[in-house]
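User: I'm curious whether this sequence folds into something compact or stays loose and floppy. Could you predict its structure so I can see for myself?
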Amino acid sequence: MTISLTKIEFSFSVHSTEDFDKNMEAIANLIPEELIEQTEITVEELEGGYNNSIQYVVINFNKTKDMSKILENIASKLSQEQKDYLNNEFEKRFHSDGKTFFLRIDKEEIFKNRLVIASSENVIKIAIKMKAYVKDVNYVEFLVNKGIL
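Assistant: Here's the prediction. I'll summarize afterward.
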């Protein structure tokens, strides 16, 4: 194959008014159950407006088998309408220098185990980083084959 996955990163903020554990339960709706226990989570403590604490959570995956399972899980929860929307927005969501495709998932909806593409601030950001072994490749086709578009 001329394209491969190199990293999938989830990132989101947990504000002082939110329950950290509840947020972690919600993210578990995006990560297959068998990967949850081995998931390494980085939490950075930040300070928001009015000195409120914010926890910035980053979760990275870089094993091919794990990334494939994650994409399968995400693809299974995306409606065809959402896939079409992402396909139409590919140019806006793809960073060609970094070969990365970006998704923003509504955090409130994932609490209900519903995956909804969003553009608001209260989201889980997903970055799908790829690598190409030849110059002219079709990233859209690759993501269509993975079920994301």
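Summary: Residues 10 and 126 are 5 Å apart (CA to CA). Helices lie at 20-27, 33-36, 64-77, 80-88, 90-93, 107-111, 139-145.
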